[in-house]
Amino acid sequence: MNAPLQISPVTKNIGFLIRRLLPNSKVKSIGPFIFWDHMGPAHFAQDINRKADVRPHPHIGLATVSYLLAGGFMHRDSLGNVQRIDPFDLNIMKSGSGIVHSERIPDDIRQSNAEVRGLQIWIALPEELEVADPSFHHYDAKNLPHLQQEELQVTVLIGEGFGLQSPAVMFSPTQLIHVKLKAQSSIDWKRQHSQQGIYIINGNIQINGKDYPTYEMLEISELDSVSITALTDTELMIFGGAPLDKPRILWWNFVSSDQARLDLAKQRWKDGQFPPIPGEIDFIPLPP
User: Fold this and answer.
1) Residue 177 lies in a domain
2) Which CATH number do you get for residue 150?
């Protein structure tokens, strides 16, 4: 029996801990998913440097997916949106031809020294949407579809699964599902997209007889189905979608199928030609 392709995180400390799963030396993308960071757990006091505040920065050619497991973030963007994201809310920001946003830790989270952890994911837009107008979409946790059983909890964030359909916007066939399994419980998962993966948020699982620990990503695109057994109480993300329509170039916060378009975005940011965020005065300079 074939085993999943196992992807281990690259751990970085950027003032707080992140684990990067995509892109990876083994796999550049799984379906439209081209970037996957797991941040935290982290705590941020009222320090003068406000670590973890992400100053205004631009994006093109992608959709950001923000999903917090603990803590809070405040999103602001150049469309004028101001939106707090709390645990299990879903933020999807389509950058298209260009958007600027910031992500800051709210004061109440800092004052309480609350734990912050979550997932920051990028989805490549189809080529025809890379130059579309930007947009922003927020979904409160209570408005996302849930399945609650004794041994299994499911929230369908994007797409469909377990008989549930998410209201969240999709730009191509995409699936993102948060699954919680009690220890010693199992599910049989039939692959629903040509490219599919599993990410272990916490806990330990066994797939087709092999054990896998926390923070590992498993590509199951070559398997028609898998049997997943939780060896401990476990949280997973099941995700996938259609393959990319063509290769993507990633540079800093930009994604494009066209190098010239990416180079133009670099110059636009350097020259201050992206739209500003109302109320923000600082920004992240273009890297050298």
Assistant:
1) yes
2) 2.60.120.10
Question: Which residues is 100 bridged to in the sheet?
Answer: 58
Counting the structural domains of the chain, the total is 1
Cβ-in-10-Å burial (0-12, 13-18, 19+) of 243 comes to middle
Give CA torsion, residues 241, 243, 247, 251, to 10 deg: 10
The pTM for the full model equals: 0.95
pLDDT tens, 218-268?
999 999 999 999 999 999 999 999 999 999 999 999 999 999 999 999 999
Residue 204 and residue 212 in contact, taking contact as beta carbons nearer than 8 Å = yes
Is residue 45 pLDDT above 80, yes or no? Answer: no
**Which of 205, 261, 229, 221 lies closest to 33, judged by CA?**
221
Q: Which residues are CB-contacts of 151 (< 8 A; sequence separation ≥ 6)?
A: 181, 182, 185
In a domain, 16, yes or no: yes
